């Protein structure tokens, strides 16, 4: 049985750059290795970011390296980019909102609307220290990711 009682993970930051500039960064998921402490490479099959585009991600934690496959499920210019990971069923997204001062509020989320797959739950337990500690690691990684996006956008 998949793990179905999964609270969303979320982190938010405010960036002193307009949504168009932030969008130019986050809408190209090939930038993720610059920001994410876990992602070391993202390939977009066919090279074009669009709804339906297939992704191959290479992730790393210490000596452990593993691939995941994703698919872009939402790409709303200057508002939202989201992708679903095939192996664990989670949906990762960046939502952008303009702020009153001309900047951008960026929220990164990980949701599991269909739960988390048995395969992922088992591997997380056996290899990544269990669901609770891995979830905490993901939450911390989201904060790092947003801080790095902020630094890039405000340069």
TrEMBL record:
Pfam families: Polyketide_cyc2. This is Uncharacterized conserved protein YndB, AHSA1/START domain. It comes from Nocardioides scoriae.
């Amino acid at each position: 049985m998949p793990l179905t009682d999964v609270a969303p993970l979320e982190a938010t930051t405010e960036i002193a750059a307009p949504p168009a500039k932030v969008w130019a960064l986050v809408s190209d998921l090939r930038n993720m290795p610059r920001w994410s402490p876990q992602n070391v490479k993202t390939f977009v099959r066919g090279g074009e970011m669009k709804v339906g585009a297939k992704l191959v991600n290479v992730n790393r934690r210490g000596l452990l390296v593993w691939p995941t496959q994703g698919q872009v499920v939402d790409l709303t210019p200057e508002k939202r980019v989201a992708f679903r990971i095939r192996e664990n069923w989670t949906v990762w997204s960046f939502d952008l909102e303009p702020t009153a001062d001309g900047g951008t509020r960026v929220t990164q989320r990980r949701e599991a609307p269909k739960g988390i797959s048995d395969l992922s739950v088992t591997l997380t337990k056996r290899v990544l220290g269990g669901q609770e500690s891995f979830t905490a690691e993901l939450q911390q990684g989201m904060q790092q990711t947003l801080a790095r996006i902020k630094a890039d956008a405000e340069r």
